[in-house]
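Minutes, project check-in
Item: structure for the 149-residue chain
Input as provided by the requester:
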Amino acid sequence: MENVDLEKRMAEFRIRLKKHGLKVTQQRYAVHEAMLKLGHASADMVTEEIVKEGKTKVTVASVYNILTQLSMIDIYQHRMSSNNKMYFDVNTTGHMHLYDTVNHVYIDIYDDLLYKSIADKLLSKRFKGYKVDGMDIQILAHPTSRRRK
């Protein structure tokens, strides 16, 4: 990620925190910077990235709490993987995921036509007693022998 883009995204992050009455702490800043670098990550992965950078001290628990808090104000999305870990995603725009069930990795899939087609069909449906808020499409897959090489 280019330095100018990183600075812009971090400035936007500070504005969003303040909008929600949250302080811009070293830990929150470090978590967001790591998430921008990683894209999709668990608290363990983010903690490892922050420790590697050496900018501030954090624990996995504090990172998890920060990630959860930031997902509650829509800075991140979150999803549970099949290995029972919560993964967070910096991309909150409409997109789909390919989830590698072997390596526990999320890959963004951008197919606006397919996404719109599914959204139009799904969001126009009525489910008795429910109102659809949105959708989260996750395609489960495993690497083929060609991909493993």
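Outcome recorded: Residues 43 and 65 are 9 Å apart (CA to CA).
No further action items on this chain.
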